[in-house]
Amino acid sequence: MLDVIDLNIEFHDHLTPETVVYDFDLHLEEGEIVGIVGESGSGKSMSALAIAGLLSRKQMKKRGKILFDGVDLLTCSRNVLRKYQGNDICMVFQEPMTSLNPVKRIGWQVGESLRIHTSLTEDEIREKVLKILKDVELDDPEGVYDKYPHELSGGMRQRVMIAAALVCDPKILIADEPTTALDVTVQAQIIRLLKHINKKRGTAILFISHDLSVVRKLCSRVLVMYQGRIVESGEVNEVFDSPKKEYTKRLISAIPKMEKLEYER
Fold first, then answer.
1. How many C-beta atoms lie closer than 10 Å to residue 130's C-beta?
2. Parallel, antiparallel, or unpaired: how do β-strands 71-72 and 60-68 relate?
3. Rg of the Cα trace of the chain?
4. Whether the Cβ atoms of residue 208 and residue 175 lie closer than 8 Å to each other
5. 55 contacts 9 by C-beta, under 8 angstroms
6. 154-200: per-residue pLDDT in tens?
7. Cα–Cα distance between 151 and 74 in angstroms, integer?
8. What does the alpha-carbon distance between residue 4 and residue 125 come to, in Å, rounded to a whole number?
């Protein structure tokens, strides 16, 4: 469904061009959950933003291919790209308070993609929004619909962001550090929710994280990035149990031996 081939990203907003992603390759099948791990600055989020079409076309140079259903999202026109953004490919970010509009009610924000990509009436949009708020396991969807972001807890806001991403039933959900700002109990709930969404809807998930213990519980395959390059990739259990690269070994050795939570498979 998604093939990223030889993706290179080079910034041109300084005196000297700076390459932040080198020769990135990714194959994502329908319904698959793939993790990308690495420390801050490794290029994992930059690669995800490129796939989502959210990188500026003026301040950076991108080379390679990002093929989604045969269309190269890296070189297609903005009009073509917009048809996929928020419809077929959606993204959830780390901190929902910076993504949600503080002066718009939750129901309006979750339904925004439906206004852009469909011809549904406002009553039909409301019905779909209430259903997706229920699907992401928010208590009292009717009450949440009319609230503002500041009236919700961090975990509820993250569920709202997931609902907004799923309301158009996308084929790919990109989750960029979606649990980092949450406490461990809520983090476990969000991971279980993502598993449930993947199983129920068949949504492919690209999960970006620096938390290897979470990636091991959620993903079937993993890519390990360091300084803009993929240094190791493969099945999760294979990479975690028998890492080949020294950097991967160091990452895995840093995982706490006593995990505070066990995420259900």
1. 18
2. antiparallel
3. 19
4. yes
5. yes
6. 999 999 999 999 999 999 999 999 888 788 888 899 999 999 999 99
7. 38
8. 33
